[in-house]
Amino acid sequence: MKMKAIARFGKEFGSYRMVEVPYPTCGPEDIILEIKAAAICGADMKHWRVDNGSDEFNSIRGHEFAGEIVQVGEKVTDWKVGQRVVSDNSAHVCGVCPACEQGDFLCCEEKVNLGLDNNTWGGGFAKYCKIPGEILRIHKHAIWEIPENVKYEEAAVLDPICNAYKAVAQQSHLLPGQDCVVFGTGPLGLFSVQIAKLMGAVNIVMVGLDEDVPVRFPVAKELGATHCVNGSKEDVVKRCTEICGRDNLGLVVECSGANIALKQAIEMLRPNGEIVRVGMGFKPLEFSINDITSWNKSIIGHMAYDSTSWRNAIRLLESGQIKVQPLITHRLGLSEYEKGFDAMAAKEAIKVIFTYDFDDIED
User: Fold this and answer.
1) How is 319-339 classified by DSSP, letter by letter?
2) Which terminal CB of the chain, N or C, has fewer other CB atoms within 10 Å?
3) Prediction pTM value
């Protein structure tokens, strides 16, 4: 049997296509999931509407997904058919580098992720995905069971929840009573707002642009932002300083990846404050960062999450202390994937959830 899947072609940016691929086969240590919900991530968007001209198959896409176990290999003892699970999208790591030794598997330099480049196991933008036995031998928490009261679509976005949790709760030293500024109005930014609120921040300022005003600013306010600043019209540093004062801004979470946001973050931050840079930009910096030396400001790089992030984020989601539903603006069948990606590109969507809606395909 075959299934439909969104795949990427070539090594350069770009080239998504809907293709037909065989169902994954289950080896002795593998697990097969039937995908129940998959979400578009901001990282998926850099390839959208870009044609790199390649016909070389790269990978099935979709790294934010949850599903039901429908098959397990004969050597699998920890998991059984029928369990509802969510993947942290890890598929291959070396197991012996310093990152792997401390359980920071998403910082392994040899990592290959489900639903991302060069993986051979599949992803969430399909009917089925294989969880390879090799990752489960090294990293037993490559998948997690979903609590009964958590929906598949909510579990599917645990990836950005866990990213935000690690950035704010694990990597920063934010203290209750301090203020926090968050640049970037996507899911990473909106979940960072929620974590900052849980951590006891007093003022939580969301910084966005004109296009964020209609949809994303109201959601940010609903989720805990005390103020929203429109960088298209306002002096961001001046306005954030007015809100927070000079002494209270201990943390800036930079989720946009824009160079100007990093520049503004450095300027507004108090001495001894921290910037966790979650977003990625692709242009060289064109400004001095001497301020971080002059005033002992820290820029902390961020990549993904670890099992502590997942364990605690799942508990927060289960308890209702993290909200997902306000972020899910579109629910579509996979056959309408172009509509979902276009809505994301236009910032009409915050989170788009796909469910598989094709009939089975005979060989």
Assistant:
1) HTSS--GGGEEEEEEGGGHHH
2) C
3) 0.96
